[in-house]
Amino acid sequence: xxxxxxxxxxxxxxxxxxxxxxxxxxxxxxxxxxxxxxxxxxxxxxxxxxxxxxxxxxxxxxxxxxxxxxxxxxxxxxxxxxxxxxxxxxxxxxxxxxxxxxxxxxxxxxxxxxxxxxxxxxxxxxxxxxxxxxxxxxxxxxxxxxxxxxxxxxxxxxxxx
Length: 161
Known about the structure:
Order of helices and strands: HEEHHHHHHH
Number of helices: 8
Strand order of the largest sheet: 1-2
Oligomer: single chain
Radius of gyration: 20 Å
Structural class: mainly alpha
Largest sheet: 2 strands, antiparallel
Shape: extended
Mean pLDDT: 76
Distance between the termini: 45 Å
């Protein structure tokens, strides 16, 4: 089983006093995860991706799995071939997916295990879509907003820097 698409799925536990769960992945991934859990006869407290002894995967084990399966995935997703995919890359991608889904940065900080939102605020700075959306809200009514498209001469200048 190719593990990368499954790792990309995120299950976010909401407030511990409620039984609701927020899902930030599509229905086919949900079915795949349910089948994976059922086939393994996993208990609720079991790791989603266990090691050989049934315990949690170490960081090194995750890195080894990525090193093994990113080239396999790159055969069908050619853009992966030029990328350096690490466990931290997946962690950052998960945080950005949560941010894009509208999850509050304090919740993301908790999910990532950060002690404060200060470390999580970097995702706000990295989120260009959120910046563009905020700028669009500042435009006067009736004025269309368009994305800036630099001219060829400016792009050539920047390429030569």
